[in-house]
Request: fold
Amino acid sequence: MTDGDGWELEPGDEEGAAVLGLIGRQLRSWREAAGIRASELAEAMGYGEGIVYKVESGTRIPRPEFLDKADDVLEAGGRLRDMKEDATKLRYPKKVRDIAEAEARAVELTAYGNHNLHGLLQTSDYAQALFSTWRPVLPAERVERAVAGRAARQSIFDRCPAPTLSFIQEEVTLQRPVGGRMVLRRQLECLLELGTLPHVDIQVMPTAREGHAGMLGKMEVLKFKDGTAIGRCEDDFASRPVSDPKQVRVIELRCGIIRAQALSPEESLAFIEQVLGET
Reply:
């Protein structure tokens, strides 16, 4: 392993910096209590000395296995190992963490997408290919973190009790061969699997529709157990998440109309099967 092992925190992530600082202080405290130098700890763990200093100073996010080994070497009794979940979350940008937190609380989600598939529906290969289209080109580490962040959010499909999830996708998002033919095929197969889950509806908006309520762009509404909700609509409300009931109702109204204008879930699965057969 090298000093570069781990991830850097995004600039301006004050919340993440506070958590990372706590992890670093805990590591240093246990190392000093054990009476060993940073170089000795690094050698015992199979790492370069630099990564130990970076983690202790709060400038590098440790990988889960780093904390496992540190806990074993320092005989921390699981105290360092218990911080793996917090460290793993920090690898994702704050925006992604905020989205994941909202999705984890949601009892209902309705989303319309027009350019590409919703992040919760994407396979890792599709997401990887999608991020590779960004310009300027994203660094490999950032792509890795972004793909991992999307994959982690997909635990929403396995939650119990299960939330109600509704996705409306423009026809073109099922046909554009992002990543190539085989990546698209696997993505379509994934959609068919998800679409058979009892709490998931996937609908297709045919390109032949002359117009519909989603012409402003992608939108989403998440509802929570306490009766509150948040929504987002591209090119409206400054494209920012809103929680004001009046604004959320506007987005919810549009989502409801879009669902009525799209193919039914059954028709949509048949359509996806047809596209898969032609791919």
Notes: The longest helix spans residues 14-34. The beta strands are 106-113, 164-170, 200-205, 219-224, 229-233. The chain is about 50% helix and 10% strand.
